[in-house]
Amino acid sequence: MSLPPGFLDELRGRTSMAQVAGRKVLWDMRKSNQGRGDMWAPCPFHQEKTASFHVDDRKGYYYCFGCHAKGDAISFVRETENVGFMEAVEILAAEAGMPMPERDPRAQQKADRRAVLSEVMEQAVQFYRLQLRTSAAAEARAYLERRGLDAGALERFEIGFAPPGWQTLGDHLRGKGVPDDQLIAAGLAKASDKGRAPYDVFRDRILFPIRDVRGRAIAFGGRAMDPGDKAKYLNSPETELFDKGRTLYNIAAAREAAGKGRPLILAEGYMDVIALSEAGFGAAVAPLGTAVTETQLQLLWRMADEPVVALDGDKAGLRAAYRVVDLALPLLEAGKSLRFALMPEGKDPDDLIRAEGAAGMQRVLDAALPMAKLLWRQETEGKVFDSPERKAALDKAIRQRVGVIKDPSLRHHYGEELKELRWHLFRSARPAGKGRGSRRADEMAPVAGTKASALVAEGEIAERRLRETVILAAMFAAPEILPEFESQLEAMDCADGTLARLRDTLLRHVGAPSDAVRDAVRETLGRETLETLLSARHVAVIPCLRKPGEVELARLTVAEELAKLSAWQGWQTELAEAEADLQGVADEALTWRLAQAAQARNSAGRRQDEAETDYEIGPNGAHMDREERSALDTLLGQIKFDKTRRR
């Protein structure tokens, strides 16, 4: 409906913003100046004790200095009453004594038709409620009693009963002058294909009236009393009044309760909504026999910024929750999301409340998951990520899911949240004391017995710490390169606690702005610890630290040091295998010579960092000079010969 020019201006001119807001707030008269229309109160849109909500009655506007809510009388009514724009206009116009503009003839005809059908529906509601008190409804009353519904609940939710007869309702309404075409148009009867009078849609069912956002009866939901009925639950067919994908059960009452600050809960069925409401969770709604639709999500977000989806605690309920996630992701906006309260296995909200009361339900609501975590569960539950290919597949799936979020800022925050969850998943998969690495890094590390032997004890820790420190310092100097080396950084063990914290902080902030990364590192390590680390002799001389901003130099440094670290790990593994071959069979001279070779390797690695030397590639990429390489080849050859001879 369009409004004529000047109508809204006149409405605002006749409306007192202070009067409209005064119905919802308690003015702070010490701070307010009523004569000037300068009014202050605690804000109705967020919890606070001080008066930061300001109304300028002369200009007709409000503004909260706490939550920054602002607008005029129309927007205030929309927000506090949870109504649409035209509904807010109609409310204020009625209060101001202004008649609403005339509609065009076709629109008026359609509105009149809807009003007639709505009246027919109200008559049906009253008829079915009376039928619930008859002897024919004894079994239905017993069922409702078993489900915990007392007389008060039956009254509040207007629950009724459709008798088993084929034309019970039709005969009753025809006797009141309702023609057959209106019965059919209202969805109460169906035309017979045998030339007989229309027959009732609902028979031998408990009936739950469905009302629209303005409280008008538009449809019914019916639960069959006959266990053999093909449809346990049956909703009215779609009509001029009823579009099942565009409304929610209990929406009118839930809108009012949500406006008063109650948590908005999306449950699965009528009985869940009733149980929640009776337990004190009045802002409960349910879809109407179909999966949640985009329109229903928008209805939820009009009532609350973060509705809670509380679905049954079984596989079907979880699948339904996943479908809601898929539907909601492209629709998300900053401040508009969903949380998911997962019921205990095999229970719905009705079961839980009857077993544990409102307190049990509240505990589940308090533990509701943000949508990002349910998305993560959807992509990871029941899967194993024990190979690079599987991890890459997870990364690809997450990128695709997050990519449908339209808001760039929100998409970034989802990416950060899921990256954090990924970090914890892969870190927890490693043995205690290990970094966030792959299985290959574990296999390359020396075995426990080797670490205690003379072969690697000297220089091992110092060698590894030196490499790791240089790598991490270079990444701190140029955080822009973190995405390129993320997987290698994950695979890097850090025996030193300070280095491990530095590594983990860098990984948690991959892709973040450089200044933010550095600030996070300073906060985690402390400035003094960080300065001590960066001022060490072998770190301070790194070219990329001496020339801040040289990103390419940092990239080359990290790549080279990672290669050296990998070679060193391979060398340690080869020595460990050689020592294992010698256990119990080698003489002291051979063991001593192998230990000397290990010591020579450690010395060679340190000399390489201090001066340019003529190097060759040693075992698994380790750097040695030619003389050391020749001596080691001879020694390892003898070990292999002895091993063959023993066989």
General description of the model:
It holds the Pfam family Toprim_2. RNA polymerase that catalyzes the synthesis of short RNA molecules used as primers for DNA polymerase during DNA replication. InterPro entries: DNA_primase_DnaB-bd (IPR019475), DNA_primase_DnaG (IPR006295), DnaG_bac (IPR030846), DNAG_N (IPR013264), DnaG_primase (IPR050219), TOPRIM_DnaG_bac (IPR034151), TOPRIM_dom (IPR006171), Znf_CHC2 (IPR002694). This is DNA primase. The chain is α+β, with helices and mostly antiparallel strands. The chain has 29 helices and 17 strands. Residues 432-458, 583-589 and 604-625 have low confidence and may be disordered.
Main attributes of the structure:
single chain, 647 residues, alpha+beta, DNA Primase, Chain A, DNA primase DNAg catalytic core, N-terminal domain, Dna Topoisomerase Vi A Subunit, Chain: A, domain 2, five-stranded mixed sheet, 9% strand, zinc, transcription, EC 2.7.7.101, DNA primase, magnesium
